[in-house]
Design a protein that fits this description.
- By secondary structure, the protein is mainly alpha-helical.
- It has one domain.
- The protein has one helix and no strands.
- The longest helix has 32 residues.
- It starts with a helix and ends with a helix.
- 0% of the residues are buried.
- The mean pLDDT is 93.
- This is Diguanylate cyclase.
- It comes from Lachnoclostridium phytofermentans.
- Keywords: Membrane, Transmembrane, Transmembrane helix.
Length: 34
């Protein structure tokens, strides 16, 4: 059980960090394009 919960937590953290990186890269892209 503990391992499963840890795995879910890690996946959530990974998804959040990927979304943040994606958003930051889009903002940088638009700033560079201007």
């Amino acid at each position: 059980m503990w391992g499963k919960n840890m795995f879910k937590y890690l996946i959530k953290r990974l998804a959040v960090s990927i979304i943040i990186l994606f958003g930051v890269s889009i903002i940088i892209y638009f700033v560079v394009r201007m």
